[in-house]
Structure formats: structure tokens, C-alpha cells
Amino acid sequence: MTADLRDLYQEVIVDHSRWPRNVGPLPEASHQAEGFNPLCGDRLTLRLKVVDGVIDDVRFEGTGCAISTASASLMTEALKGRSASEAEALFADFHALLTGEPKANPALAKLAVLAGVREFPSRIKCATLAWHTLHAALHAENRPVTTESMP
Ligand code: ZN
Fold this sequence. Notes:
Blueprint: H1 3-18, E1 31-37, E2 42-51, E3 54-63, H2 66-79, H3 84-99, H4 124-138, E4 145-146
Parallel strand pairs: 1-4
Antiparallel strand pairs: 1-2, 2-3
The structure holds zinc ion.
Zinc ion (ZN) is lined by residues 37, 40, 42, 64-65, 67-68, 126.
């Protein structure tokens, strides 16, 4: 990765952590879940409005480090208009980007800015917390999720 590209990625992460998108309550939510990453202290509540199997709206609330906040913000932008199964497929490709062999998925788009956390394994859970919480919300698991019970 060139230094210029790394700077650009850093800029996007800082922007989304300072001014996260889609923050706040979602009174008409059909799905919700809470996530907690005890390694870092990141917490978030994710709410989704799913209509006919498509994510119509998504918002989050919580407190966490810059990576977890930026990742949740970028995730909400990436999810709107996608079906639940498309969202799960995107999570699989995003997880691969951070932990293993990245697959070429143009839908990852801006999410690729988080690829840099691959160099910091302790931060991977910060970047995936929102997605694990999304998975729990879509599967209507009512118990809070913690990154410590995840692979
Ligand atoms: Zn964190």
C-alpha cells in the first residue's frame, strides 16, 4: 500500500469516527441487538428496519474506540437497500479482508479502508463488532453478543 493511499484510508476512518453516520434511535426498528467487545470496551446497540427482507434503515448508538465507531458508521452506509443475505455475504467478505485472503468484492467499496487493522490483530474485533452485532440482530438473538465468544 502506498503512503498516499494509507493517508486517504486514515482520513476516512478519522472522518467516520468523529462524525459517525446513522447514529441515534430507530423507533420503527424491527430488529435490534447489543454488542460488546471487552478487549477494548467498545459497546453498541444496532437497530434495523427490515421491510420485505430488505434493510430499509439502520442506526446505531454506543461508545467505543475510533476503529469500532468508524466501522459501525461505514457498515450502516453499506447496508441500506441490501437484503439480509447480501448483508451476511458482505460480512463474510469483510471478515476475510481483515483476517485472511481478501476476496475481490466491489461491494466492499469504502469498507476496504479498514483493511489496515489486519496489521493489528488486537483491533480486528473493534472493526468486526458492529458486524457481529448485525448478525445477531438479523437472527433475532436476544442475548447481548460479546466478541469473546467469537472465533
Ligand atoms: Zn475498540
